[in-house]
Amino acid sequence: MLIIGIAGGTGSGKTTVVKRIVDLLPNGSVAVLSQDSYYRDNSHLHLDERKKINFDHPNAIEFELLSEHLKMLQQGLVVPEPVYSYLSCMRSDETIPVSPKKIVIVEGILVLTQPELRNLFDIKIFVYADDDDRLARVVRRDIVERGRNVEDVLQRYAETVKPMHVQFIDPSMKYADLIVPEGGHNDVAIDVLVTLIEKNLNISQDNFL
């Protein structure tokens, strides 16, 4: 099993990079775990309090559970990935079963900030994008997918997203084996990543089939 950690700032294009990698590798060869699924359950808090949580701080993520699930996958076990709602800021009672695959990708803004997680990664990737580009993507995403208005998005960006990026996310870039500028639009970098994955597994794509 090859475990790949993909980090980068909010709106940097991490999800697009993951999708491109999955699309270029044979069907069924990759499992993906999202850091966002592992936000701590805040059901004990009132909705107004839940919406004030700093979701860009490492303390908001249950990294212990994410690390445990990765180790279970290494042991050949199916893991129950949590389901988290940005609208309610709570975990669902349901989970998504994730089966072990030859390649496991762990994606999230903070995954390179945690030593225990980094030690589990065979390849560490940081997706880089200009701050202005990231802000534009964050505004579009949060309005369409997370039911927020422009004023709330800009306030959250100024109060938590940008400061947490400077304090935690950007410094974690030093741990990356590869830095991918322009996210999933960087065809050369994506091709290099796929080649590196195949080389690390020491098999050709035909062996997946």
List low-pLDDT spans: 204-209
Q: Mind telling me the CATH superfamily name?
A: P-loop containing nucleotide triphosphate hydrolases
How many discrete domains?
A: 1
CATH topology, anyone?
Rossmann fold
Oligomer: single chain
What is the strand arrangement across the widest sheet?
2-5-1-6-7
- In N-to-C order, the SSE pattern is EHEHHEEEHEHHEH
Terminal CA distance reads: 16 Å
Class inferred from helices and paired strands: alpha/beta
Tally of strands: 7
Binned, the helix content reads 25-40%
Which architecture per CATH? 3-Layer(aba) Sandwich
Strand content: 15-25%
What can you see in these coordinates?
With 209 residues, the chain is of the alpha/beta class. The chain has one domain: P-loop containing nucleotide triphosphate hydrolases (Rossmann fold). 39% of the residues lie in helices and 21% in strands. The protein has seven helices and seven strands, in the order βαβααβββαβααβα. The chain has helices at 14-24, 47-50, 63-74, 115-118, 131-145, 150-169, 187-201; strands at residues 2-8, 30-34, 79-85, 90-98, 103-107, 123-128, 178-181. It has a five-stranded parallel beta sheet, covered by helices on one side. Strand 3 and strand 4 form a beta hairpin. The longest helix has 20 residues, at 150-169.
